Amino acid sequence: METALTALESSTLSRIREAVTAEALEAVRVEVLGRKGQLAAVSRDMGKLTPEERARVGKLLNTVKTSVEAALEARRAEFEAQALALRLDAEWLDMTVPAGGTRPGALHPVSRIQQEIEDLFHSLGFTILDGPEVEDEYHNFDALNIPPDHPARDMQDTFWLEGGLLLRTHTSPVQVRGMERLGPPLRMIAPGRVFRNESVDASHEHTFYQVEGMMIDRDVSVANLIFFMTTLLTAVFKRQVTVRLRPGFFPFVEPGFELDIRCLICAGEGCPVCKHSGWVELLPCGLVNPRVLQASGIDSEQWGGFAFGLGLTRLVMMRYAIDDIRWLQSGDLRFLEQFA
Ligand code: DAH
User: Fold this and answer.
1) Cα(134) to centroid of ligand 1, in Å?
2) Does residue 100 fall inside a structural domain?
3) Which ligand 1 atom sits nearest the alpha carbon of residue 152?
4) How many structural domains comprise the chain?
5) Which percentage of the chain shows pLDDT scores above 90?
6) 81, 137, 183, 233: least CB-packed within 10 angstroms?
7) 91, 123, 149 — which closes off a domain?
């Protein structure tokens, strides 16, 4: 019996050393130390022995049990150490490797040109005003001398909201708010988002940007208007531009104009950008209609002014030769990264 026990001990110890998984180790434990295991069987058979034999075998049984338990524990600890080593290996970081390239942010081209225009007008003594994007009919239309039957009021163009409110269709209502709040004399610009209920394509968006401008003083003339517009466009395009005025109709100015610039791409020779006319339509403007001054409580006998509505989105597209308006609001990094 003692020989069998010693043999069991040495075979068990070598099985433990050879076990390569926690499951294999557990199987050895159950088979040898378990309640129905080999050592339990020896212990049961001990009843048949003489007292002296029983004492000797009992002692040996305990030694074997202890040594098997110790070997199991040691092997388990080895497994844990191996697992930890694997994890550390997987998580290993070389803190001395230089970091990957950074991706610097950039201002959106619309913000960029808007800021340039703000800086320029600020230096000319203009105030920068903000107005609400959700407007009322009065500021968006009535106060600007746009009668209820004017096509600009057509449901097609305006996003109407509940309670007679709407998404402003232009930045002109900020003129009205400026006149109401600050009175004459007044020099202001109002950059911002405007909304039109249009179907979207390469040259139309439902959301785009304008910069409204207004100057009210004594004796303001078309000459003043041309001076400020030429200064504006020269600064934006960073070169001398040639402008011309054509008559244009807007209910809030009289006379009203369309200001064109000589095409910067072909210098007036004619090309696809200017549709072979040599001129690009850029900026509607005019002398403020006396009715608009009066609606905001300004005495039109004493004061006069000019106003303009610059299509900021259009200007950005021309300056950077962007051929599809949808890029601007796409959020596409391939587009935006070009401005970094
Ligand atoms: N508000 C006009 C529009 O969005 C643009 C405009 C035209 C503004 C003439 C003006 C102006 O101030 O004088 O179509």
Assistant:
1) 18
2) no
3) 14
4) 2
5) 55
6) 81
7) 91
The Å distance, Cα 309 to ligand 1 centre, comes to 4
pLDDT at residue number 156: 62
Contact 286 CB / ligand 1 (< 6 Å)? yes
* CB of 314 sitting under 6 A from ligand 1: no
Domain check: are 154 and 262 in the same one?
A: yes
Range of the domain at 52: 2-91
Find out whether the beta carbon of 308 lies less than 6 Å from any atom of ligand 1. Answer: yes
Average confidence score pLDDT of the chain = 91
CATH of the domain at 327: 3.30.930.10
pLDDT surpassing 90 at residue 275: no
Is the minimum distance from the CB of 304 to ligand 1 under 6 angstroms? no
Residue 328 pLDDT: 93
Residue 116 above 90 pLDDT?
yes
pLDDT at 273 over 80: no
The pLDDT value given to residue 155: 62
The verdict on the CB of residue 178 being under 6 Å from ligand 1 is no
Does residue 104 sit within a domain?
no
102 domain residue, yes or no: no
3 vs 286, higher pLDDT: 286
Residue whose CA lies nearest to ligand 1 atom number 7: 284
pTM of the model: 0.69
Rounded Cα distance, 84 and 332, in Å? 43
Residue whose CA lies nearest to ligand 1 atom number 4: 170
Tell me, using a 6 A CB cutoff, whether residue 184 lines ligand 1.
Answer: no
The predicted pLDDT at position 298 comes to 97
Q: How far is the CA of 259 from the centre of ligand 1 (A)?
A: 11
**136-147, pLDDT tens digit by residue?**
999 999 999 998
Q: How far apart are CA 25 and CA 21, in angstroms?
A: 6
Residue 121 lies in a domain: yes
